[in-house]
Design goal:
Layout lengths: L1 H8 L9 E4 L8 H9 L8 E7 L5 E3 L4 H5 L3 E6 L1 H13 L3 E7 L16 E2 L25 H16 L4 E5 L12 E2 L9 H17 L4 E7 L24 E3 L5 H7 L10 E2 L5 H6 L5 E3 L1
Parallel strand pairs: 1-2, 1-12, 2-5, 3-4, 5-7, 7-9, 9-10, 11-12
Antiparallel strand pairs: 6-8
Length: 294
């Protein structure tokens, strides 16, 4: 079968190999569009279909049963049910592809609020949500990894998505906020309990534990430039400090080799996120057969 041919091509890797493309968002709720998309895929180039289930604002494209998802308004009006999501997973499986989920994690200004106990606190004032810039300038709140309720929310979503049949869960936005106002960003009462790196590690480990219960794996997506010492505040240093078996560094076109040379994780454990199939030859030249085209 095509699955066997893909795995035999990548036997040098410890994985079966992941060559992933994104499902168009409108095909999630339209089985005909899903079928047309799957029929058009080249099984020589791709063996995995990724679906964005939580976007960069924190909105969910499926009807989560995690209580905070409904109470904070994260479920979009066109969201598919968990049953429909399982049907999509089955259709992808039946077409000979592996289903993968893609979530933004701490980057979430819907479920993050002081009243939910999930956000950063303005100047560490109880009940006052910190925003990454002024509210009238589009300021957003973020989930705070030091807040148990924030970690529990992400863990709940992860377990639910794994149970729906996704064996791979890409976790983007697992970082500290991009802001010009870090001084007012209060981490809350648990700040002394962990370093900033340990707090991110705890989010990843907690999500991994939930995913593993259903046989799934969480793959953190890291900003590629941060391996080069740029934007160090995102991860409080290099992403390499966060322990993970697999990682998905985002590779900006033209900087792929520079970034890959800086990553400490073994090449067979990388599933780089690229923006175009034109970047694949650069990966192959570096000995990397896996990728996610976003």
């Amino acid at each position: 079968s095509s699955e066997e041919s893909v795995s035999s091509q990548t036997e040098t890797s410890n994985l079966q190999g992941v060559q992933a493309v994104f499902l168009p968002q409108d095909a999630l709720a339209d089985m005909d569009a899903l079928g047309t998309f799957l029929d058009g895929l080249d099984q020589e180039q791709c063996n995995t279909v990724a679906i964005q289930l939580k976007n960069e604002s924190g909105y969910l494209s499926y009807a989560s049963e995690v209580p905070l998802a409904a109470s904070c308004g994260a479920i979009t009006s066109g969201a598919v049910s968990l049953e429909q999501l399982a049907e999509v997973v089955s259709a992808i499986d039946d077409a000979g592809f592996a289903p993968a989920a893609y979530l933004y994690t701490l980057q979430d200004d819907v479920a993050s609020h002081a009243s939910y106990g999930t956000s950063y606190l303005y100047n560490d004032q109880s009940g006052v949500t910190w925003l990454d810039q002024a509210a009238d300038n589009g300021g957003r709140s973020w989930l705070n990894p030091y807040m148990d309720a924030a970690v529990d929310y992400l863990a709940g979503l992860t377990g639910e998505i794994a149970e729906a049949g996704f064996s791979l869960i890409f976790a983007d936005g697992m970082q500290y906020p991009i802001t010009r106002y870090p001084a007012e960003m209060g981490f809350g009462p648990n700040q002394a309990s962990m370093t900033q790196t340990e707090a991110l590690q705890n989010v990843l480990d907690t999500m991994q534990t939930e995913a593993a219960k259903a046989g799934a794996e969480v793959i953190p997506v890291f900003a590629g430039e941060c391996y080069l010492g740029e934007n160090e505040s995102y991860y409080s240093g290099s992403p390499d400090a966060i322990e993970t078996e697999l990682a998905a560094p985002v590779l900006e076109a033209g900087r792929e080799t520079e970034i890959l040379n800086a990553v400490l994780l073994d090449k067979e454990n990388l599933i780089p996120v690229i923006s175009s199939a034109e970047q694949i030859p650069v990966l192959e030249a570096a000995g990397i057969t896996q990728y996610l085209i976003k």
